[in-house]
């Protein structure tokens, strides 16, 4: 176009913009508005040129039609809006009108129609070609997509095959009845059979009978619930060819066809046997004794609980609590290693001897074992079991060349029928064990309910002792020791006395025994010495009284107390010279240790040293519980000045000596022997003049009893002393 | 495409309409089958689908050009559909031939089609994947070849998130992409909304129920929430026609007839 046609150009530019707007809303064009405007303006000019050309041709219009399609002006209304806008533009154009006037209006109108027709034809042909192209493309795309999918499927099949074959997880594919159709090698390895052998078997056959039903049920639920997969929570057991079981986690799934109908079951088997065994081992460790491998106390108690907890009236059990004798000696003497081996051998022998019985053997700690025997009609009785235990243990085991044999004390409780607290059973067995142990080594005994009741009452009493002492229920009483020749008071014995509100007065010896059970005996004994020592000082300060000595019976624990000397000196001070200490013979051990295989008991040796030191301080030592010639040996070893006849000996002549009693016949000789050793002899518990007379006749020097002088509280001592004759000499 | 394949494998479905092919049809394309065209006609009776499609396509083009202007040279187009006109790689590579584009679609034919179209273009590729698996896509060999996640990337979720139901946690999906993107990356999203033409869109939802991809148009606030962690560029979240039009008059009198919200956000 040329510049002189500017006004017409403006009008064309207006039509061009109208065309741009029409096409812009009828189709999406991936270009900027300016680019579209330039393009269409070019087309518009080409069209006008064609209309004005000397030699008329519709070819440019056909090209414009094709161009519109090529530029994606292919909206529903793109062509019709184009024809409408361009028709108006061509007819309204000033330049074309001028030409029309020159060449004829009819001719120009024909040209316009022909051009628009050509444009439409070009557009239609191009659109048809494009549509065919697109359909061809989409057909190729569909084919390609199908092939891709097919290849993907083949690949996934290959991948599945690879996975199936190489997986460490066992995989079984079965039909809905559980018949195995395919099994991979991993599953074969888990159950220890070639995979090919498993095909055709039932899936359930691979599993432990107790677990198979669970698996079948889980598969069925999957089918019913129309779920595709789930993991089974509990571990299930597979049966292996070697008879073992393999533990496995399972994941199961159901394959369905395109209609959603279940067709196959898939079972994935993850062998966790090793993990399971580890878990078992940890579990085992918490319930077993590491040294012997026997169940520990926790395990034993739970076993006991489950057995006695069952209220089966006919079930009978026996509970054995076993303590090895002198195991500490083995441990300390031969070393811990030997001790450990001995314990293992004990465990093995207990297990072996009960192998045919329904029994649980446990180790509770150190040298303590326990057996729970669930009685059957053929079980041996408890006596036979107890005897068997000790005869088995008596067989020496050779450890590092040394033959070691042990014995045991055994407490037994039997229980038949009905539920019972297992802790109570165990307590009874332990109480019985303690009782039989006090009788020595290699002892056994059955639970004795009455004895047990007594012991429990005693224990309650012992437990209450500290409170009673604190509150003053426990105090001292004093009873004179009287010379039988002239009835002069030589000494006053200070004793413990517990005025128990329920059990009445408990005597000195009972108090000491109870105190010994709770560890009160040493402080209480010291308190006794100190309190009585203060009284002794009072007696000496009193006028008109020949002050007596103070007699105190020591408890066995006091006699063995390494601090005895300092305790006595601290309590009595200068009064030690007026103290008579009663020492129980039994704590002194054998007088001559040469013959004892076990060697001297170091505690007894130390006790004797202490007593000698006290004698050096002026304390008069009195052997109490003098019962036989053997005891006289101490008179050679210790500076003992007096003896007191054992209570047990006295009972033989109480209430009166009967004719023909061997003891009564022997007593005069025993007393004579004591005298010959330079000791005076005292006898207690003289309640009648007859007894006094008899004892005096057989040679006793000193007596004590209510018929000679009563026991009185501290305040009653001085008035009592006044009523007695003064001693005629200074002998005590 | 009249001939029927003897066997059409799973994932290739020509009997159930596909939203990608409906989109192609309403844009004037011929890459579709009779069921797609029938569904498209029903859709056209419910909503101005041609206009929606055209405006959405326009937004995609403007968003890509905006990103190129911002210096972004790599694009991940999720739910790219049938390659019709003005595809992302055409727009971007026309602006700068070094631009790289990875297309992702779940529809097998659309992916196959894109493969054919992109043959010979080293800077663009397509993978078939579910956009709900961001890790699988971002760690695919094609992503490793074309995209550098240490550099800003243009993430395009244009007209696709409305096909992800709430039960598939669409926000979580966007977040998982966001977390992998370098700071300075852009997210362009457009999304069906019922806000503008509620009744018409409700009818459109019914039409989509008969296709492979049921649609879940979302209100303004929910769409906005997809941009958590992104700073929206001007003019924020608006109808597609309103997002940075070339000329003010392009917005038209009824921008809400576009029925899609659109925005571009930049990762902080």
Written overview of the protein:
The complex is a heterodimer of chains A (732) and B (268). With 732 residues, chain A is an alpha/beta fold. In chain A, the strands form four sheets. Chain A has an eight-stranded mixed β-barrel with strand order 13-14-16-17-18-19-20-21, surrounded by six helices. In chain A, strands 2-1-5-4-3 form a five-stranded antiparallel β-sheet, with helices on both faces. In chain A, strands 7-8-6-11-12 form a five-stranded mixed β-sheet, with helices on both faces. The radius of gyration of chain A is 59 Å and the shape is elongated. Chain B has ten helices and eight strands. The termini of chain B are far apart. The relative contact order of chain B is 0.15. Mean pLDDT of chain B is 90; it is low at 1-9. At the A-B interface, helix 6 of A face helix 3 and helix 5 of B.
N to C succession of SSEs of chain B: HHHEHEHEHHEHEHHEEE
**Helix-and-strand structural type of chain A:** alpha/beta
The largest sheet of chain A, given as strand count, sense and whether it forms a barrel, is: 8 strands, mixed, barrel
User: What general form of chain A does the structure show?
Assistant: elongated
Mean pLDDT of chain A: 84
Strand order of the largest sheet of chain A: 13-14-16-17-18-19-20-21
**Class based on secondary structure composition and strand pairing of chain B:** alpha/beta
- Beta-strand proportion of chain B: 15-25%
Helix % of chain B is 25-40%
Instruction: Tell me the number of strands of chain A.
Output: 21
Name the chain pair with the biggest interface and residue counts per chain. Answer: A-B, 32 and 40 residues
- Would you identify the regions of chain B where 5 or more consecutive residues have pLDDT less than 50? 1-9
Q: How many angstroms separate the termini of chain B?
A: 48 Å
Arithmetic mean pLDDT of chain B: 90
How many whole angstroms does the radius of gyration of chain B measure?
Answer: 17 Å
Specify the overall morphology of chain B: globular
